[in-house]
Every structure is written in structure tokens, then in C-alpha cells.
Design goal:
The chain contains twelve helices and no strands. The chain has about 220 residues and is mostly helical. Helix 2 (about 15-30) packs antiparallel against helix 3 (about 35-50) and helix 6 (about 85-100) packs across helix 12. The radius of gyration is 18 Å and the shape is globular. The model is unreliable at about 185-210 and about 215-225 (pLDDT under 50).
Length: about 220
């Protein structure tokens, strides 16, 4: 499914290679996505094609690399820095390997652009199942992207629409750097812990999908009375 490969490319770090591919990506979007989704992605396409590359790179790092809420690493949303993340990485890497997708040295399997590239190689029903598993993560990232008033919000909105999930409009919020850091600190406290009774033994797609679906649980401690 080429649309996942298109969205994967748009989520990658903006460099000269991505800029050179923008005309081809724009043509693929027009061919593979409905006009409404094409229109939503158009501002991002224009920015990647025309804006100063150094500014694009700085904005990208500020958006995706300075806090967990917008991290492009899926298991960071699910496990934070807990030791469960390492085994989840192994499980996902094995799923890729079984599907014929081999990782490059140093490549992390939970990187969202890579995950979308994997989906592009799978049958439609299988890809839809995997996408549904990460819908809670995408919903959170879409809300955070809207609050940041970034054009990248259109990518998460498009993925949610492909998944058949509802999107909620969130107004942009002007925040000082300290406030953003506080929000990220709060998010870091919400590491998911798996409860008893779950069969997480062995390495399989089912085990990996269990870990992904854990992102939909409320990990915050219950309020004390």
C-alpha cells in the first residue's frame, strides 16, 4: 500500500534527498489519497519544497526530538524507558525479519517511518490491523501536533482517517518552553505497566501487538481520596 510509504517519507528528517523527492511524493499523494487528504497535506508539501532547509530541520528536531509526546519511537509512548521496551524492540524486529524487512545497522524497529514502511509491504487487512493497534498513539500525537500548530499534524490526521478513527480538533496553544518541558515531564510519568494474566512469553506478532495495544491504557495512577 503505497500511501503508507508516502507518509513514511514525509515523516523523515528533511534533507536534500527528501526535498528532491517532493515532486514525486506530491504526485503519489494526488494519485493515492482522496482529495480531502491531499488538501490537508498540501501545506506540508509546500513547506518541504520551498522553505529554508535549515529552518525545516530545526523545527523538525524541536518537534520530534525534544519530548516524549511527539516522539517518533512507538515504544517510547508505551514503555517509556522501562526494560520492557528492549524486549518489545526484539519482538518487533523479528516480525520485520519474518516479513522480509531487514533493519540497517543502528536502525530502531519502533521508529514510526520504518513501521509505516513495513505496513506498505503487508496485505491490506494485515496493515489495517497493525495500524489499529497504534491508533491511541497516533491520536495523542495528532492532538499534540495540533497544539503545536505544526503542519505535520496533517500526517497523523491522515493516518487516523485511514484507520477509520475519529479525529478531534485541538486549538493551537501558545506555550513557553518551560511549560512544554513540564508537559513532557508529566508524560514521562505515564509509563505503561503490564498486569498479571497476560501471556507475553515467546516472540510473535501477537506478543508485539499486545505491547502496541497497551498504549491505549490509562497508565496514570488513580487519584487518591
Amino acid at each position: 500500500m503505497r500511501k503508507f510509504k508516502i507518509l513514511s517519507a514525509l515523516l523523515c528528517y528533511p534533507d536534500e534527498g527528501l526535498r528532491a523527492a517532493i515532486p514525486e511524493i506530491a504526485a503519489a499523494i494526488a494519485a493515492d489519497l482522496p482529495p480531502a487528504q491531499d488538501a490537508k497535506l498540501h501545506p506540508l508539501i509546500l513547506a518541504l519544497a520551498d522553505d529554508d532547509l535549515f529552518d525545516l530541520q530545526a523545527d523538525y528536531v524541536d518537534l520530534f526530538d525534544r519530548g516524549r509526546r511527539m516522539s517518533l519511537h512507538l515504544f517510547e509512548h508505551v514503555h517509556g524507558e522501562s526494560r520492557d521496551r528492549g524486549q518489545a524492540m526484539v519482538d518487533l524486529a523479528q516480525v520485520y525479519e519474518q516479513a522480509g524487512l531487514l533493519l540497517a545497522p543502528g536502525e530502531l524497529p519502533d521508529y514510526l517511518p520504518l513501521f509505516l514502511e513495513f505496513l506498505s509491504t503487508r496485505p491490506k487487512a494485515e496493515a489495517a490491523g497493525y495500524l489499529a493497534d497504534i491508533t491511541p498513539i497516533l491520536t495523542s500525537m495528532h492532538a499534540a501536533a495540533q497544539a503545536r500548530d505544526t503542519r505535520y499534524a496533517a500526517i497523523f490526521a491522515t493516518l487516523l482517517q485511514i484507520a477509520g478513527a475519529a479525529t478531534v480538533a485541538v486549538a493551537p496553544v501558545a506555550r513557553e518552553a518551560e511549560e512544554l518541558e513540564a508537559l513532557d515531564a508529566e508524560w514521562e510519568e505515564s509509563v505503561v505497566k503490564f498486569g498479571p494474566g497476560e501471556d507475553l512469553s515467546g516472540c510473535s506478532p501477537d506478543r508485539m501487538r499486545t505491547r502496541l495495544r497497551a498504549a491505549g491504557r490509562d497508565a496514570r495512577p488513580a487519584a487518591r481520596t
